Amino acid sequence: MATSGYSSIENGYRGIREEYPAAIFGQGVNKSYGRGKNKLSVLQDLNMNVPRGAIYGLLGPSGCGKTTLLRCIVGRLNYDSGHLIVLGDHPGARGHGIPGSMVGYMPQETALFNEMTIGETLSYFGRIHAMTSDGIKKRTDFLLEFLTLPKPNRLIKELSGGQKRRVSFSVALLHEPELLILDEPTVGVDPLLRERIWKHLLSISQSSGQKTTIIITTHYIEEARQANRVGLMRSGRLLAEEAPDTLLHQHHKDSLESVFLELCREDKNEENTDNMTINKKDQKPDCIHNDDDEPLLDAGLNESIIYPDAAPRKSTDSSSGDHGDGVCNCCVKCFRPRNILAQMIKNFTLMKRNIGFLLFEFMLPAIQIVLFCLCIGRDPYDLQFGVVNMDTLGLGGDLLTYLDSEVVHQVNYSSLDAGLDSVKAGQTWGTIYINQNFTFAIIDRFAKGANASNTTLDESTVKLYLDMTNQQIALIIQEKVAQAFQDFSSTLLIKFHQNPAIAQVPIKLESPVYGSNTPSFTNFMAPGVIISITFFLATGLTTLSFVLEKKEGLLDRSLAAGMTSVEIMLAHVMTQLVVMAVQVAILLVCALLIFHVPYEGPLIWVIVLVLLQGFCGMALGMIFSSICDNENSAIQCALGSVYPMLLLSGIIWPVEAIPIWMRYISYSLPMTYAADALRCVLSRGWDITMMPVWRGYLATMGWSLGLLLIAAIILRIKQ
Ligand SMILES: Nc1ncnc2c1ncn2[C@@H]1O[C@H](COP(=O)(O)OP(=O)(O)OP(=O)(O)O)[C@@H](O)[C@H]1O
C-alpha cells in the first residue's frame, strides 16, 4: 500500500520521537555534493542507530563520508533524502537544540580563534550556551586540569597542535551536552591522556543523571573497542553496526581491524558480482539494538518503518518540509541578544589583540583623505617652459615678466627649432615664441585698434607650442600665458593713456550664487572621496573579517553551537559600526578642520550620511563574504568593485559627462546620489528638506537594507 507506506513512516517517526529511546536514528539517508556530472554521492541509503547513553565508534577509511554524516547529524549540512532523527527531532527543526546547546561538536579541524586565549575561547562558547560566568569558570578549571592544558591566559596560537586539539575537545565538553560529536578527538594525544579521555567519556555516558551519547571517529581502530557500539563505514554506507565484542565473535577475529578488512572484502566482492551499489539486504543492519541490547524490531517499531522497501522512499525527501532542513527556520526573525553579545565580545577581543591593525584601521581613512587633499586639485607648479624671445626692443621681455614664476619656470632658447626640440625631448612642457617685431607690432595694434593690419596682428601675437598630452598642465600654461598677456596689455594701455579694460575679455564674473569665483577641483571631489573612502573601507574590512571567521571551520563551529548566521552578521555590523564611527570622526576632522574643505550646511547631516554610507559598504561586504569561501576571492570581489563604482558614481568626474544610457547605471549605484547629496550639504549649505539631499539619504538607506537582506538570504541559504 503506497499511501500507507508514507503515513506509516510518519506515524512511525512520531512513535520514535515519543517512545523510542534512540539518540540518533537514521534511515535511508542520502547525501551528495555537486550536481550533474560532478555529482558525488557520499552517503548512500545509510541506516544508523545510536542508543541513548552509548559511545558509538564511527570507523571507516578516509573519504568514506564520516565527517559528512557527522555534519548532517549536528545540523550543519542538509541531507538530500531519507530520515534522520537526533535526540527526538530532525536536526535544525524549529525549537530543537540541534544545532545548539544539546550538542557538543568537535570538528576535525581545530576551529579555534588563534588570537584568543584558552579562557576567552571557553567563555565565548559558554556565553553562546547561556552558561553563567560562575559555571564557565568551574567547567574551565575542571577541563584545564582534566585535559592537562596550559594556563587559561595562553593564546591559542602559542599552543602545540595537540594542545589545540585538546582545547577544541574542551569546547565540545564545556556545556555538558546531551550529545557529543567528536571527530578524531584523540589525534596527537599521548596514550596516557587518551586513556583518561576514554575513561571520562565512559563515565559521562554511564552517569545516571545525564546519559551523554557520544559519537566518536578515530583512526586508532582498536581504541574503538571501548565503545558500546561501532559502525563500520565504507563508501557512504554502514557495513555493520554492532557491539565490538559481538563483531569479533561473529567474525571469529581478534581485532576490529581484521573484522573491518573482511567486511570490506565481502562488500567489494558483492560490488564485483553485482553492479548494484547497495544490496539493501546487506545494508539492513544484522541487528539493531537499544541500550538493553533489545532488538529494535521488538521495541515497538514495525518493520515497514525501518526497512520500508515497499514504501515510496522519495516521499520522505527531506526537502519536502521542515524535515532535514538542517537549520532553524526562524533564524532570520529570532536572533538572541546573548549570542550577539558573545560574538561582539569575541570580535572586540580579537581587535584588542591586534591593536596595531586596529590603529591602522582608524588611521587609514585619515591617511587617504590627507593624501587626497595634498595631491589632488592643486595647480601644478615649477613647470619647465621654453622661451624663444626674438624681440630685442623690450616689450617681449616685459610680457615674460608677467608670467607666474611659481607655476612656470622659464628656460631660454635661441631659436624656435631649439625650443621645439626641448618639447620633443620632454625637457619642457611647451615653448612660447615672440616675434622680432613684437614691440612695434603691439604698439601699432593698440594704437590702430580695428584698423590694424593683418601683419601687425600676426607679429603682435605670441605663439605657443605645447605638449598637449597632459591636459591639466597644458591648460594651466595656457591660462597663465593668457593672464600674463592681459596684465601686460592693461599696463601698456595705461602707459598710452588708454582704458585698460579694452584688454579684458568682455565677460564679468559677478559674486557666485554658491561657491567661490576660484573653484577648486578638490572641493568638487572631496564629498565623493569622503563617501567612497568610508564605503570601500567598510566593504573591505567587513569582507575580510567575515571571511576569516569562515576560515578553518570557525564559523561552522559557532553555527553548530547554536548561533545563526544572522546573529553573527548583526554582531559584525555592530562591532564594525564602532570602528567606523572612529574612522568617520578622524576623516571629517582631517577634511573639514585641517584641510578646510568648505562645509556650509549642518554638520549633523554630513556625519549621518557618511555613517549610513559606511553601513551600506558593510552590507556589500557581507554579500561578498557570504558568496566567497576564501579571502582571495572575497578580496578580489571587493577590489573589483572599487573602480567601476568609483568611475560611475560621479566622484572623479561629473555624472553629466557620462553617456546618457550609462547614466542610468550610474544613478542606480549606492554612492551616486549620496555623493551629490553630500556635495549639496557641504558646498551649497542645503539641508534634508532639499530634494537632492533627502534623495541621497533615501538611496543610501534603500541600498543598505536591500544589500543586508540579500546578504541575510545568501547566508541563510548557505547555512
Ligand atoms: N564540501 C564538499 N564538496 C564536495 N565534496 C566534498 C565536500 N566535503 C567532502 N567532500 C567529499 O566527500 C567525501 C567524503 O568526505 P568526508 O570528509 O565526509 O570523509 P571522511 O570519512 O570524514 O574522511 P576523513 O577520515 O579523511 O576525514 C570525500 O570524497 C570528499 O572529497
Automatic annotation (TrEMBL):
Q: What are the GO cellular component annotations? A: membrane
Record keyword Ribosomal protein present = no
Task: Describe the location of the ABC transporter domain by residue ranges.
Answer: 24-260
Occurrences of domain ABC transmembrane type-2 (ranges): 491-718
InterPro entries under this entry? AAA+_ATPase, ABC2_TM, ABC2_TM_bact-type, ABC_2_transport, ABC_transporter-like_ATP-bd, ABC_transporter-like_CS, P-loop_NTPase
Q: Where are the transmembrane segments?
A: 524-548, 569-597, 603-625, 637-662, 694-715
Under Gene Ontology molecular function, one entry of this record is: ATP binding
Q: Its domain of life?
A: Eukaryota
Q: Keyword annotations for this protein?
A: ATP-binding, Membrane, Nucleotide-binding, Transmembrane, Transmembrane helix
Topological relation to the membrane, as annotated = Multi-pass membrane protein
**Pfam families hit by this protein:** ABC2_membrane_3 (PF12698), ABC_tran (PF00005)
**PROSITE patterns recorded for this chain?**
ABC_TM2, ABC_TRANSPORTER_1, ABC_TRANSPORTER_2
* Localization (cell): Membrane
PANTHER family, A to Z: ABC TRANSPORTER G FAMILY MEMBER 20 ISOFORM X1 (PTHR43038:SF3), ATP-BINDING CASSETTE, SUB-FAMILY H, MEMBER 1 (PTHR43038)
Name of the protein:
Uncharacterized protein
**What is the species of this protein?**
Sinanodonta woodiana
